[in-house]
């Protein structure tokens, strides 16, 4: 087993290597791996690095703040198998000599830096299997000098490549290819598909100047294909989905095919009703077809919004219900007798089940070593004056919250969850598990809980002020919120989220960060509340996919709202929306303002393009000159959190550092469009077809499927709650 290297936080990297070099126990002959990712390292790689660590087989310096050019001396790491330098600030061209002796290299990831110039010559790297050079500034034509025999994963997306799209049709082992967001010469879609091999599982050609009409017959040779992304091109004409009936989606294909053609120029779609029964996901948002009369078609609605259902089937169900009611009215006497009998049985069964559920909850608490304070129902009933309406502090989707005074004089907030649903039991246990485990000044403190039959209550510390929405938008409390107080609110929420994402094991995704779920104490210190939708995120997994969407419209990240994909970056996106609300003093969706300002984040992107982000600032704020720079920094942090691509958003740890001015805000990219598509996209914004307005927003618990992104599809498994512990 290879020994673990102690994590060194926020060091200048040249000093770190000197310390390691003189730490002889680290450099014993059997130590071949250096994993230093995500440690806040800064500076440039020393030119002597190759001499110091010539025996390395694996090197991971990703997710740091390293800069400068790569030293040629790295070429002396002749035994290297894995090289990961992604998510840093490296720049300049890559020296040709580095790869001359790296013949054993299997995986290389240089993505998310600012490397420039031509692609390096990799012909000597005979074993290279995975190559990721995305999100850099490489330019010129794609002259990929590499051994094509072993390469199966190639990502050159989000660079500045020009000229002809490369012909990779003879690369028979290539399974994943992404050339999206480059500046290739215009090319007919049929020719581009001839340039790639038929064994691909994933193909990305978004925003690559493709044009022409896509015939689904072009895809027939790709029998293994799972995903093809052709967004933001100029593909036009008629799309014959009916032709997919002859496409081998069954038989040789063993998974669902996703075809994404968002923001093109397709105006007509031909299909048959049978299409909806195929293992096919077709995404056409942003095409002229979706602004037509597709709403009258179930399949069209499915293509344009991914809201797929069968209205004919619903009509059949309604007819059955009407028939049932008619029959019931004819035999009401008999049914009344049956109902009485069934009712008696259910009352008896409910009493039995209530006792069983209570015992089951106690058993689970014992199993997972949880010891929350258990209050009696009578104690809480007395504390809240029998849950009198004038004691109510507020009410949400999961139930009402009452102010109460316990016998010892302490003031508490009692959350009475809605009843008669197993899902409510799941929410109850979820919140007890999460809040019993975590302790942080910016998280609401759980004092205990109560179970009585179907009644489930949570007892919190009473936060003396209103929530952020009431204070900021409704001006309750008559307490002015100056800029220093607003900044402190943003920083406090960010600290709380950083603790949830990085301070406990397994990580916790809140999933419903919004102004209503941020409570303010008498000093306006923020506390994150309402963990009913929180998810425990397994450390060994890279993403979570849910079957049903839960959350609040306007705060949900696009990948979560449209595809159900969850990572820490979902909370990061919600924080970005919240930060803009705090700066602007308004809700993120407001229909009482001019149309271009209705959606706060959309308005912010327009102001970002115009270079006038300070127009977002609440007019009621009186800023000092030295405060304007801080306000602009907070806005830029929010914009970084709102980037469309989840991988471009910062972590909450980075958000805290950026808010405090410890690190600079990186480049902010919303989406790269070509000029024609960008104009049509801006026009479509007026049609109110944003993803968040089309997805379900009911706040209900979701069945969770855990899966690693490195696999073809994750296998479902349950996360043991006993694994939750503070780091």
TrEMBL record:
Residue ranges crossing the lipid bilayer per the database entry: 325-348
Pfam families assigned to the protein according to its UniProt record, in alphabetical order: LRR_1, LRR_8, PK_Tyr_Ser-Thr
Keywords: ATP-binding, Kinase, Leucine-rich repeat, Membrane, Nucleotide-binding, Repeat, Serine/threonine-protein kinase, Transferase, Transmembrane, Transmembrane helix
Highest taxon, organism lineage: Eukaryota
UniProt-recorded Gene Ontology molecular function terms: ATP binding; protein serine/threonine kinase activity
PROSITE patterns with a match to the protein in the record: LRR (PS51450), PROTEIN_KINASE_ATP (PS00107), PROTEIN_KINASE_DOM (PS50011), PROTEIN_KINASE_ST (PS00108)
GO cellular component, as recorded: membrane
Domain Protein kinase residue range list: 387-663
Claim: Nucleotide-binding is one of the keywords in the record: yes
UniProt: ATP binding residues: 415
Subcellular location: Membrane
SUPFAM superfamilies named in the record: L domain-like (SSF52058), Protein kinase-like (PK-like) (SSF56112)
SMART domains: S_TKc (SM00220)
Main location: membrane
Keyword Oxidoreductase recorded: no
Name assigned to this protein: Protein kinase domain-containing protein
Organism: Physcomitrium patens (Spreading-leaved earth moss)
Lineage, highest ranks first: Eukaryota, Viridiplantae, Streptophyta, Embryophyta, Bryophyta
Gene, per the UniProt record: LOC112279157
């Amino acid at each position: 087993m290879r020994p673990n290297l102690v994590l060194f936080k926020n060091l200048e990297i040249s000093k770190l290597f000197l310390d390691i070099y003189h730490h002889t126990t680290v450099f014993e002959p059997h130590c071949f791996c250096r994993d230093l990712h995500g440690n806040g390292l800064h500076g440039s790689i020393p030119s002597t690095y190759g001499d110091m660590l010539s025996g390395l087989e694996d090197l991971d310096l990703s997710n740091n703040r390293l800069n400068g050019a790569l030293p040629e001396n790295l070429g002396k790491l002749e035994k290297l198998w894995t090289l990961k330098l992604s998510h840093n600030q490296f720049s300049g061209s890559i020296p040709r000599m580095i790869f001359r002796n790296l013949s054993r290299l299997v995986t290389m990831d240089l993505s998310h830096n600012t490397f420039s110039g031509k692609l390096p010559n990799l012909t000597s790297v005979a074993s290279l299997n995975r190559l990721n050079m995305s999100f850099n500034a490489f330019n010129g034509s794609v002259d990929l000098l590499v051994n094509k025999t072993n390469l199966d994963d190639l990502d050159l997306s989000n660079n500045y490549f020009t000229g002809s799209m490369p012909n990779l049709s003879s690369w028979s082992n290539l399974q994943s290819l992404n050339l999206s967001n480059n500046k290739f010469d215009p090319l007919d879609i049929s020719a581009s598909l001839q340039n790639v091999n038929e064994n691909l599982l994933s193909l990305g050609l978004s925003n690559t100047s493709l044009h022409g009409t896509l015939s689904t017959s072009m895809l027939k040779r790709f029998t293994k294909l799972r995903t093809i992304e052709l967004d933001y091109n100029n593909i036009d004409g008629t799309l014959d989905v009916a032709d997919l009936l002859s496409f081998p989606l069954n038989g040789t294909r063993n998974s669902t095919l996703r075809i994404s053609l968002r923001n093109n120029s397709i105006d007509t779609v031909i299909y048959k009703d049978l299409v909806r029964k195929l293992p096919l996901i077709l995404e056409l948002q942003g095409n002229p077809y979706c602004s037509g009369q597709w709403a009258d078609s179930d399949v069209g609605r499915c293509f344009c919004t991914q809201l797929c259902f069968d209205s004919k089937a619903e009509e059949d169900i309604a007819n059955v219900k009407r028939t049932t009611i008619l029959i019931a009215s004819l035999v009401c006497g008999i049914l009344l007798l049956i109902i009485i009998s069934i009712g008696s049985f259910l009352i008896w069964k409910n009493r039995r089940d209530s006792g069983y559920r209570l015992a089951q909850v106690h058993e689970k608490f014992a199993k997972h070593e949880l010891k929350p304070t258990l209050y009696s129902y009578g104690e809480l009933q007395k504390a809240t004056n029998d849950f009198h309406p004038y004691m109510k502090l507020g009410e949400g989707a999961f139930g009402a919250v009452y102010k109460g005074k316990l016998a010892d004089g302490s003031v508490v907030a009692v959350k009475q969850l809605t009843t008669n649903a197993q899902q409510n039991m799941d929410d109850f246990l979820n919140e007890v598990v999460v809040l019993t485990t975590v302790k942080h000044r910016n998280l609401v403190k759980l004092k205990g809980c109560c179970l009585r039959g179907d009644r489930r209550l949570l007892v919190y510390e009473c936060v003396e002020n209103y929530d952020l929405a009431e204070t900021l938008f409704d001006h309750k409390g008559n307490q002015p919120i100056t800029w220093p107080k607003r900044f402190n609110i943003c920083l406090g929420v960010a600290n709380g989220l950083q603790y949830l994402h990085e301070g406990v094991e397994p990580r916790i995704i809140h999933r419903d960060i919004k102004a209503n779920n941020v409570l303010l104490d008498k000093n306006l210190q923020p506390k994150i509340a309402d963990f009913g939708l929180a998810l425990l995120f397994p450390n060994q997994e890279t993403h979570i996919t849910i079957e049903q969407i839960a959350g609040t419209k306007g705060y949900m990240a696009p990948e979560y709202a449209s595809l159900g994909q969850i990572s820490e970056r979902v909370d990061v996106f919600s924080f970005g929306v919240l930060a803009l609300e705090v700066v602007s003093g308004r809700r993120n969706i407001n229909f009482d303002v001019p149309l271009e300002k209705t959606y706060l984040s959309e308005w912010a992107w327009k102001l970002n393009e115009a270079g006038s982000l300070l127009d977002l600032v609440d007019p009621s704020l009186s800023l000092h000159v030295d405060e304007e720079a801080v306000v602009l920094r907070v806005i830029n942090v929010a914009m970084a959190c709102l980037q469309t691509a989840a991988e471009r958003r910062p972590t909450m740890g980075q958000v805290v550092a950026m808010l405090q001015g410890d690190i600079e805000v990186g480049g902010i990219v919303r989406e790269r469009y070509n000029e024609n598509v960008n104009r049509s996209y801006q026009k479509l914004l007026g049609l109110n077809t944003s993803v968040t307005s089309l997805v379900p927003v009911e706040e209900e618990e979701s069945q969770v499927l855990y899966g690693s992104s490195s696999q073809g599809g994750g296998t479902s498994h349950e996360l043991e709650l006993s694994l939750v512990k503070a780091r």
